[in-house]
Hints:
Elements: E1 5-12, H1 16-29, E2 35-37, E3 49-52, E4 55-58, E5 64-65, H2 69-77, E6 84-86, E7 94-98, E8 101-104, H3 109-114, H4 120-127, H5 142-150, H6 152-167, H7 176-179, H8 181-190, H9 193-207, E9 212-213, E10 216-217, E11 221-224, H10 230-239, E12 243-244, E13 249-255, E14 258-263, E15 268-275, H11 279-286, H12 291-298, E16 302-312, E17 326-328, E18 339-342, H13 343-346, E19 356-363, H14 375-390, E20 398-409, H15 415-428, E21 431-433, H16 443-460
Parallel strand pairs: 1-2, 1-15, 2-12, 7-17, 15-21
Antiparallel strand pairs: 3-4, 5-11, 6-11, 7-8, 9-10, 13-14, 14-15, 16-19, 16-20, 17-18, 18-19
Helix pairs in contact: 1-10, 1-16, 5-6, 8-9, 11-12, 12-15
This protein binds flavin-adenine dinucleotide.
Amino acid sequence: MSPSIDTRVAIVGGGITGLAAASWLELDHGIDDAVVLEASDRAGGKIRSELEAGHTVEGGPQGFLDNAPDTLELARRVGLGGALVPAADASADRFILRAGRLRAVPTSPVSFATSDLLPLGGRLRVFAEPFARRRPDGDESVFDFAARRIGRVAAEVLVDSMVTGVFAGDSRRLSLAATFPRMAAMEAEHGSLTRALVARMRAARRSGGRSAGPAGPGGTLHTFDGGMELLPRRLADRLGDRLRSETAVLGIGRDPTGLILETGSGPVRARRVLLALPADRAARLLAGLAPDAAEPLAAIPTVPIAVVMASYADPGAFGRPVDGFGFLVPRAENAGILGTLYCHSIFPGQAPAPRLFLRTMIGGAREPGLAGLGDDALVGSVRAAHARILGRDPDPDRVWIVRWAEGISQYTIGHLDRVAAAERAARAAGIELAGSPYRGVSVNDCIRQARAAAGRLAATS
Ligand SMILES: Cc1cc2nc3c(=O)[nH]c(=O)nc-3n(C[C@H](O)[C@H](O)[C@H](O)COP(=O)(O)OP(=O)(O)OC[C@H]3O[C@@H](n4cnc5c(N)ncnc54)[C@H](O)[C@@H]3O)c2cc1C
């Protein structure tokens, strides 16, 4: 059978990475014939927004920080600059559960010194950070790094929460260098996070800019008017029939003229290929062509996660204010949930005022089995946790549930070496890799990786 499509570049996977890569090829390099092959009937992958009864129901990402220039540039260049929506000022306050009570996350060293987020001993240990032991050779877990630098108490409360918030992951298994590269770099450059932060604050003051936290530069969460899916939908619209949905790639082979992608609706011939897929799918597709890439890719795990969103007509339903960004739950609290975002407060346009609109995450590396529970059990877990943490168990009058069996990629110890090996072996076969399994899971990271991959594809196609 002759190839049904013949193209310079074929992109496999129509999540944000694949769609953004096709757009960058066009916007940055004038390549306007790349084809995106997507297995499902809709583009966007993990980005999924439904508008229902005045609610913006986000099944995947809630937003992205405005500290990454590529995402904002892409949004503006495809005409969505006017649809950007920043988080409300009222959502600035964040909370962490400790010893059964929500504690405000302090925003300055002075407020940290007097806050009740950590017990006194834990707080004092954080201030001893500049005198911490030097880093051991080789990759280190996020937890070991944090315990070494700021003490076990802070590692268990602050860092475990942070890892839960971004990766739904286990801080004892995740690689510092892969998950929080900026923190690793700060220690390497300045010998101490405190000294690095002071240096950055001074530099920011000199340049009149904004300061940065240890996990990365500060930023404001943004979404789009209509939800996160507005961006992939716009990118998909621009592609037109160059986006082939319901076209799963089943295998990849090669002939003297290039790579042949096997799909249910006929083969696709391409000079270069980008795989923008979950790592296990990429591993399967590369098993024959680039086994040295397939093996490390198969070792990149994901964790399942369930998202439960609940809306309450009565803003006083919990008998206390539910204002701010929301709260995260460290492992030691055994609350059965990973955390809850106060969506009505973050993006007030996403629920009819004055309702409460809560979004709770369940499962992750901590309790993967919970993410697969039935609807009643999931809602029951959320309600029991909220009764304990927020003080009451009011009846929500609307609930939405989204489950992701392969929710978020986990960058375990040795991740960056595995990625480098996979990239090398895949590239030797004419194939690029980009997306959440590799160098950052956030939407911003995916769009940045997509741009870099588009550059490499353009240079060699
Ligand atoms: C619950 C949740 C909350 C999150 N919250 C945030 C947040 O607030 N902010 C943030 O920045 N990030 C967040 N993330 C992370 C972020 O949304 C994802 O990492 C990112 O969207 C993944 O994009 P991707 O393109 O790498 O992969 P995916 O979105 O997984 O896309 C891969 C695509 O490949 C397709 N595919 C698979 N196999 C094949 C095949 N054989 N042939 C063709 N196509 C195939 C799939 O159908 C899919 O469309 C969250 C993730 C989850 C799950």
